[in-house]
Amino acid sequence: MKSMDASAVHRSELVAIAAERRWAWIVGVIIVLLLAMMVFTSLHWAAMPPSRVETIDPRKLHISGEFVEGNLGTTLGTDGKVVVRLIAQQYSFEPQCLVVPAGMPVTFRATSTDAIHGFVVGTTNANVMLVPGFIATFTTTFKKAGEQLMPCHEYCGTGHEAMWGRVQVIPRDEFLAKAGRGEGVSCVPR
Ligand SMILES: [Cu+2]
Predict the structure, then answer these.
(1) Model pTM greater than 0.90?
(2) Could you tell me the distance, in angstroms and rounded to a whole number, from the CA of residue 88 to the centre of ligand 1?
(3) How far is the C-alpha of 18 from the C-alpha of 189, rounded, in Å?
């Protein structure tokens, strides 16, 4: 009886050792697999060209080029495309208020003069980060007319919480009536 007990303990010990070894291998393989995936993706990403990157000198934004004051805001281009240009700076957006049409694509082009800013337009998916030196662009279509708030959503300094803009989304026909081809549309009636 004594020897049987001893051999039973011995056998279960062998089973435990085998199971431990098996799981050590499985865990080891998982770790190696994860490391290999990290190495592969980082090498793969580093080898791919970046997506379209537009740079701009943030020191000259106010002086010349696309983002001079007279060129900011919403324009209906001669090609019928709506483009909004704005800049963010501590602690405001320029312009503070935008007029955009509902139901047609609107392309935003924006950048920052100083720190990293960003904005989101109300509850829409228009949401972007603004990094000095880079032009952020995206195109979106606002579904409904109405006024939306546009807060800065990247902490940019002591005045961050006061950094807001407004976006007036107006019906497409009203917008087209307001905007002559190649002209700007602003919140301030002209
Ligand atoms: Cu900001």
Answers:
(1) no
(2) 7
(3) 81
